[in-house]
Write a structure and sequence with these properties.
By secondary structure, the chain is of the alpha+beta class. Helix content is 31%, strand content 43%. It has a six-stranded mixed sheet with strand order 2-1-6-5-4-3, with helices on one face. β5 and β6 form a beta hairpin. It is globular. The relative contact order is 0.19.
Amino acid sequence: MRASQATIDLLTKYYDAMEENDPERYGAYYADDMTLTFANSPAVTGRESAIAAFSDVLNKVRSLHHDLVNVWEEAGGVVIFESVGTWNLRNGTAISINACSVFTFVDGKFTDQRIYVDNAPVLAALA
């Protein structure tokens, strides 16, 4: 079923913190033992490891903005959503990429994030 407004608001606030590259704010949404699987990369385990993984990428760009397209919510805190990530590079270039993600929440914290995306155009532009 469609996600509740509270879930959409939580995702929006999370992505606002990410766009501002504020690891303390976006990291506050992570459970201590969360897992993060980003595309074909090996899974990352733990809050600090997830923050480090995102910080590494976000420090290479001016910002990363997310527009939520469709958001569905299932039992057990599972949220599935489509988004468009717009990578704003330091040279002024903007690259938009579609993604689909499956996040699991427990008590307002992400316990698992699975992000299905092909960021090859961004990686090529950053090379």
